[in-house]
Design brief:
The complex is a heterodimer of chains A (283) and B (235). Chain A is 33% helix and 28% strand. By secondary structure, chain A is an alpha/beta fold. In chain A, the strands form three sheets. A six-stranded mixed sheet of chain A has the order 6-7-8-4-9-10, sandwiched between helices. Chain A has a four-stranded mixed sheet with strand order 1-5-2-3, covered by helices on one side. The longest helix of chain A has 16 residues. Classes of the chains: A alpha/beta (283), B mainly alpha (235). The interface between A and B is medium-sized, with 24 and 21 residues. The structure holds adenosine-5'-diphosphate and magnesium ion. The site of adenosine-5'-diphosphate has 10 residues of chain A, from helix 1.
Chain lengths: 283, 235
């Protein structure tokens, strides 16, 4: 496998994978993945557990050498930040000491530690050892460590998996804040809603292949075979009608009678697209 | 150098909160102090307990703590994170190893002071302890590199530690064991310590045999380390 920092050959992309294959023994986990990531975007890698998401992140970050194919990453490993599924925090050390170690390694001033702790909402808990933290707090600490040295590209492997909705939202806010600074974010998740909310592009990964790639909205539109409207009336009735010229009359009549409570187009969400493509569930 | 210091400082903070490691560092020196002061048996060789526990200490403490720290870092994925942050394997090994060596040398000084060693004898005692701790550390680093997790490290550490920590002590009871103990660093060191104990006014000498055995032990540990390292790297 070739790994290089070729700025010219990547057409303005920060990460380019072409035909990446990964085998573990007999098992082919990635079967020829090609993917390009533009700087500044959040790209989501979606798939059920076992799909090969972590394997792909390991290959892009250089923790694993692919069996074949090429990987080009336009950033040095110093410019990468990562939060892997096992966070790799020192359990006996405090939040502060965990970050201090990496501040020393990255040679950044210690005031930055308080800055990021503040940002992820762990200032109060800075002296608390990691083994006394909740799952969500650990996640935030791992994220703080990943962004502390202001990386150019951030890898997040299922950053919200197993977290409650409030913490999940906090993490989403932090991710969007990082993006606002111009950082490229490579995110894996099996949570559709998360991908729809955060990602400019998603790749649906199934059995080692990318079965669909694009903007979440576009993908949903593409798989909108039914083209129906879903109408809910104030009397509680739900109606589905074909989304065509004739619908205009029906809708107008409900509107004039002041009966219409809600109206939606029935385009699928990523979850249903994934099920249609693979016949399997995401979770 | 910055990374080495960072790792060293991290180990200081972490191991003081790690009871299993901390006990390794202090148990034998404390036992030596207690036994040496509490037990009086007629005709007992000088510094009997100091030598006994000191040789067990070099066979056990550096070896098990190095292997255990490294394998825990692998299991918890912290070593992987360090490597991904540009810490070089050698920097990690030197940072962690020098910390364990330093703290075990404090232990060695406690042994030295607890015994009746003075002058040249004390210097020789501390010197051979330093060499023994280093050999023990290298073996521990090799085990830590070989093992994927703490479980597999422990299953290797226990038999190996048993050989280095207990054979020298048992060699007084059995000819065959004594023969084997000549070939391990802790056996050589225990021997020399005892000679200093039995013969007062003995002028301790570092024999060529001792240098060769300790050197060979270190070489074997380094080869084992290099083999493990080539197989799967540090993390
Ligand atoms: N080091 C490895 N050796 C053998 N099989 C592996 C290894 N790492 C991952 N796998 C296998 O590869 C597949 C994909 O794993 P992974 O990338 O962790 O999936 P995901 O992160 O999408 O849940 C799984 O079936 C897993 O068992
Ligand atoms: Mg995974």
């Amino acid at each position: 496998m070739k790994k290089s920092n070729m700025r010219n050959e990547s057409n303005g992309n920060i990460v380019v994978l072409s035909n990446v294959v990964q085998r573990f023994g007999e098992k082919e986990v990635l079967k020829g993945i090609s993917l390009a990531v533009k700087p500044g975007e959040i790209v989501g890698l979606l798939g059920p557990s076992g799909a090969g998401k972590t394997t792909m992140i390991k290959i892009v970050t250089g923790q694993l050498e692919a069996t074949s194919g090429t990987v080009k990453v336009d950033s040095t490993s110093k410019e990468m930040g990562m939060m892997m599924d096992s966070h790799g925090l020192y359990e006996r050390l405090s939040c502060y000491d965990n970050l201090k170690l990496f501040a020393q390694i990255y040679n950044i001033p210690f005031r930055r530690i308080d800055e990021v702790l503040q940002k992820v909402g762990l200032s109060e808990a800075k002296k608390r050892p990691v083994d006394k933290l909740s799952k969500g707090m650990r996640g935030r600490l791992a994220l703080a460590r990943a962004v502390m040295h202001e990386p150019k590209i951030l890898f997040l492997d299922e950053p919200t998996s197993g977290l409650d909705p409030t913490t999940t939202n906090q993490i989403h806010e932090l991710i969007l804040e990082e993006q606002a600074k111009g950082i490229t974010i490579f995110l894996t998740t099996h949570n559709m809603a998360e991908a729809e909310k955060l990602c400019q592009h998603v790749a649906l990964l199934h059995e080692g292949n990318i079965v669909e790639y694009g903007e979440p909205k576009e993908i949903c539109r593409k798989y909108n075979h039914q083209k129906k409207l879903q109408i809910r009336l104030y009397d509680g009735k739900c109606i589905e009608i074909a989304n065509n010229k004739e619908a205009a009359e029906t809708v107008q009549s409900y509107l004039t009678q002041e009966l219409l409570e809600t109206i939606h187009s029935t385009e699928p969400n990523l979850e249903t697209v994934f099920m249609e493509l693979t016949g399997s569930k995401l979770e | 150098m910055r990374n080495i210091i960072a790792i060293f400082q991290k180990q200081v903070k972490e191991t003081f909160k790690n009871k299993t490691i901390f006990i390794q560092f202090i148990m034998f020196p404390i036992m030596a102090i207690i036994m040496e002061n509490a037990i009086e048996i007629a005709n007992m060789p000088e510094n009997y307990f100091v030598n006994l526990f000191a040789s067990m200490y070099i066979g056990m403490a550096p070896l098990t703590s190095m292997a255990s720290i490294m394998s825990e870092e692998k299991e918890k994925n912290t070593l992987r994170v360090l490597m991904m942050s540009q810490v070089k394997p050698m920097q990690y090994l030197i940072g962690t190893g020098s910390y364990i060596w330093a703290i075990c040398m404090v232990g060695a000084c406690v042994f030295g002071v607890t015994g009746t060693y003075e002058g040249k004898e004390l210097a020789v005692f501390i010197g051979i302890m330093a060499a023994g701790i280093l050999a023990s550390l290298l073996i521990g680093a090799a085990i830590g590199t070989w093992s994927r997790n703490q479980m597999s490290a422990t299953s290797l550490t226990i038999p190996i530690m048993f050989v280095f920590a207990f054979l020298p002590m048992l060699s007084g009871f059995n000819e065959a064991i004594a023969k084997v103990a000549r070939f391990i660093y802790s056996g050589q060191i225990y021997d020399l310590m005892n000679q200093m104990g039995y013969q007062s006014g003995y002028q301790p000498e570092i024999s060529l045999e001792m240098v060769a055995v300790i050197g060979a032990n270190m070489l074997v540990a380094i080869l084992f380390f290099a083999f493990s390292y080539r197989k799967s790297g540090l993390a």
